[in-house]
Every structure is written in structure tokens, then in C-alpha cells.
């Protein structure tokens, strides 16, 4: 895929600048970065002595946990919808 369709956006996450390259809109990329920053700050407020690496891993674990819960919920809803259709 060519770089012409990709957006390159610089965002701030937990005080660090990152350049994110993706096909999503710049608004979407900024939203994702903002949500990561918010989650890192939330976890840091409860665990202020974590180093940045551990904080980043806990943030990723929390994000994947949320993802799996939502994915399971979608699967359950799809099963219920299939039952209703049948």
C-alpha cells in the first residue's frame, strides 16, 4: 500500500511525542492517542511508583482486557441474534 493514503500525525502520550502513521483519519489517531494517555494517567494515579515501561505494559493489559470483554459481548449478541432469526 502506498504512503499517499496514510496519515502521519504527531501525538503526545504521557509526555512523549510519537509520530503515528496510519490509514485512519487524523481525528481517529488523535482520539486513540488521547485514550492511551488518559488510561496511562489513570493507572499512574493509582500506582504512582511504576516506571514508564511497567505503566505502558499495564496500560496494554487493560486495553486488551477491555477488547476481549467487548469481543465476547459482541459474540454473545451475535449468537442471540442468530437464535432470534432462526
UniProtKB/TrEMBL annotation:
Keywords: Cell cycle, Cell division, Coiled coil, Cytoplasm, Septation
GO biological process: division septum assembly; FtsZ-dependent cytokinesis; septin ring assembly
InterPro entries: Bac_CellDiv_Activator, Cell_div_ZapA-like, Cell_div_ZapA-like_sf, Cell_div_ZapA_firmicutes
The keyword Disulfide bond appears for this protein: no
Subcellular location: Cytoplasm
Gene3D superfamilies xrefs: 6.10.250.790
Protein origin, superkingdom: Bacteria
Pfam families linked to this entry: ZapA
GO cellular component: cell division site; cell septum; cytosol; plasma membrane
Role summary: Activator of cell division through the inhibition of FtsZ GTPase activity, therefore promoting FtsZ assembly into bundles of protofilaments necessary for the formation of the division Z ring. It is recruited early at mid-cell but it is not essential for cell division.
Subunit-level organization: Homodimer. Interacts with FtsZ.
Similarity-based family: Belongs to the ZapA family. Type 2 subfamily.
Protein name: Cell division protein ZapA
The encoding gene: zapA
Amino acid at each position: 500500500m502506498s504512503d499517499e493514503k496514510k496519515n502521519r500525525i504527531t501525538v503526545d502520550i504521557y509526555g512523549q511525542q510519537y509520530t503515528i502513521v496510519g490509514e485512519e483519519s487524523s481525528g481517529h489517531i488523535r482520539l486513540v492517542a488521547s485514550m492511551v494517555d488518559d488510561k496511562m494517567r489513570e493507572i499512574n494515579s493509582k500506582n504512582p511508583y511504576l516506571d514508564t515501561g511497567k505503566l505502558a505494559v499495564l496500560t496494554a493489559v487493560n486495553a486488551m482486557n477491555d477488547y476481549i470483554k467487548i469481543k465476547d459481548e459482541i459474540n454473545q449478541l451475535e449468537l442471540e441474534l442468530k437464535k432470534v432469526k432462526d
